[in-house]
């Protein structure tokens, strides 16, 4: 069993990451903290709560709202990709201020919400039990502000972290500038803090996430039971499938408009959870990776020392080859995993 803390900025593809984290049978999701990113911190918190409700996640999986802005910069959002509220076009989720949504936020006894930092630290400490329990994989699918704050304020808990797995960066590839990917560009200082910490980091870059395309075939299989009628188990269309279909449709539309993706949208964030569950789906290699913090044209770029110019050692952190970089994905097996989770969620 892999214990996961998920830090997210939902976001269409973050919602798919949540689905996998709830329904993969070798993953135990401890909680979901949220961060500014695809939309404001208000919306990303609310959206995580709406997704958990829509997916019928166990009641004890709660949302912990976190940073409203990056460590040292102004917040930037992605309304052109995810809509103003971060989940544009998605049907079948509760209203933002509904009882269902509000009930998902973790609260102290006095009713105040428990923050990302507090929630993360408590869950990791309680799972680790001073070494008698389990390590936790901290998974990030948004800007890494909360994670960097956790690393800075709880160095004593780093021994309890199995790995930091983040969707972000690209190798010579950007999606906000020619070389900068959204999550890293939003908070490059935070990303560098994560890369410098003395714990294994795993980068899921655009080069790989752009192969996880929710094509028309995936979409049909997801929502049109007719497409599966020849099989012995015909799965009827359900509210869940309609919700996921609306999500993919909106996301496909913006990816076509903004980037000219003709075949469908990439499910970037879902690959983080897929990696924790089954690293064998990926080919990967270890490199030195740093973030450009002050480039004239390159701020937010992830710089990968492909030829080992720096002669880094094999330690994680400041001096070493600090990052396992995913380089390719077995796409079909990933989508089988996704469909299995949809089936499982449908049966709850
Ligand atoms: C990343 O940015 C966001 O738009 C997505 O949710 C993903 O985390 C891709 O660059
Ligand atoms: Ca995201």
Q: What's the short story on this structure?
A:
By secondary structure, the protein is an alpha/beta fold.
Describe what this molecule looks like in 3D.
The structure is a single chain. The chain is of the alpha/beta class and 348 residues long. The protein contains 13 helices and ten strands. It has helices spanning 12-23, 41-54, 79-82, 99-103, 116-128, 145-153, 182-186, 188-196, 206-209, 216-223, 239-259, 270-277, 331-347, and strands at residues 2-8, 27-34, 63-65, 136-140, 161-167, 201-204, 282-287, 289-291, 302-304, 323-329. Helix 6 links the parallel strand 4 (136-140) and strand 5. Helix 1 packs across helix 2 (41-54), helix 1 (12-23) packs across helix 13 and helix 5 (116-128) packs across helix 6 (145-153). It is globular, with a radius of gyration of 19 Å. Bound molecules: beta-D-ribofuranose and calcium ion.
Low-confidence stretches: 229-236
Radius of gyration: 19 Å
Question: How much helicity do the residues have?
Answer: 25-40%
Any idea what the shape is? globular
Main sheet overview: 8 strands, mixed
């Amino acid at each position: 069993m892999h214990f996961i803390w998920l830090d997210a900025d939902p976001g269409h593809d973050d919602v798919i990451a949540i689905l996998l984290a709830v329904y993969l049978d070798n993953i135990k999701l401890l909680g979901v903290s949220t961060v500014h990113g695809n939309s404001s911190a208000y919306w990303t918190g609310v959206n995580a709560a709406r997704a958990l409700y829509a997916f019928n996640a166990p009641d004890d999986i709660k949302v912990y709202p976190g940073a409203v802005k990056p460590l040292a910069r102004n917040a930037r959002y992605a309304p052109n990709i995810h809509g103003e509220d971060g989940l544009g076009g998605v049907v079948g989720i509760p209203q933002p201020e509904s009882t269902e949504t509000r009930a998902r936020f973790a609260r102290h006894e006095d009713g105040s919400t428990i923050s990302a930092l507090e929630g993360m630290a408590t869950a990791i400490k309680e799972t680790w039990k001073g070494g008698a329990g389990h390590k936790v994989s901290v998974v990030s699918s948004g800007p890494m502000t909360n994670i960097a704050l956790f690393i800075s304020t709880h160095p004593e808990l780093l021994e309890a972290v199995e790995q930091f797995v983040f969707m972000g960066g690209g190798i010579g590839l950007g999606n906000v500038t020619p070389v900068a990917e959204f999550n890293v560009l939003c908070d490059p200082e935070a990303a560098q803090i994560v890369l410098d910490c003395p714990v294994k980091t795993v980068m899921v870059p655009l080069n790989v996430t752009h192969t996880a395309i929710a094509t028309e075939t995936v979409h049909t299989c997801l929502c049109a039971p007719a497409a599966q009628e020849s099989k012995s188990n015909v799965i009827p269309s359900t509210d869940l499938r309609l919700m996921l279909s609306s999500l993919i449709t909106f996301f496909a539309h913006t990816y076509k408009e903004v980037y000219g993706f003709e075949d469908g949208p990439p499910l970037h964030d879902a690959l983080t959870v897929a990696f924790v569950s089954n690293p064998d789906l990926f080919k990967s290699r270890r490199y030195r990776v740093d973030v450009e913090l002050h480039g004239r044209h390159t701020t937010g770029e992830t710089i990968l020392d492909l030829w080992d110019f720096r002669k880094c050692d094999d330690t994680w952190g400041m001096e070493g080859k600090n990052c396992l970089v995913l380089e390719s994905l077995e796409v079909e097996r990933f989508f089988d995993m996704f469909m299995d989770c949809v089936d499982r969620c449908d049966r709850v």
